[in-house]
Request: fold
Amino acid sequence: MCVNYNVSTKVIQSLLELTDQEGNEKLREFIKYFYNFVYNSDLRVNNKFLLYIAEDAYSFISKRKKDESKLTICNINNIPGVEGNFTTLKIVNDDMPFLVDSVIANIKSHNLTICYYSNSIVNVKRKSGLIDNICSFEEKNDSTKESVIYIIIKGISDSFVDTLRESLQKTQTHPTQDRKSVV
Reply:
């Protein structure tokens, strides 16, 4: 059974306590916005897992050029707190309609099993491509709302990673066209 839920304030607070207090203020602010929607299957998650995902996602988005669409797919064994062979998909784009729906539909079209995903909109202010500040959604001065998608699927072969990457790159640039063809 799949469960859609928001990570509770109590869990977020415990994640913030696990982060190194000094020098990680941007990561701490990122965590507050990152866990606004989570899809979880039968995968049993814990704070180690959630912190690993947040740190990995933050590291991935920390450097990004203006208007750049970033995507990475990699195979990983034994994510902290969860044992097994998995493939992670990380995507960051300027916020756009239907992107998450189109990415999920694309993954499902390949008959792949989604174990976990988180998608969030984070309002980011950058200097020279690096995160300068994580802003509230109300702030508009030089900040950009970025869509951050982090997906974990059951592990796939290294040879299929390239096929999936090509397919998702098309989806990433034209989500509404891709969604229309699936719906």
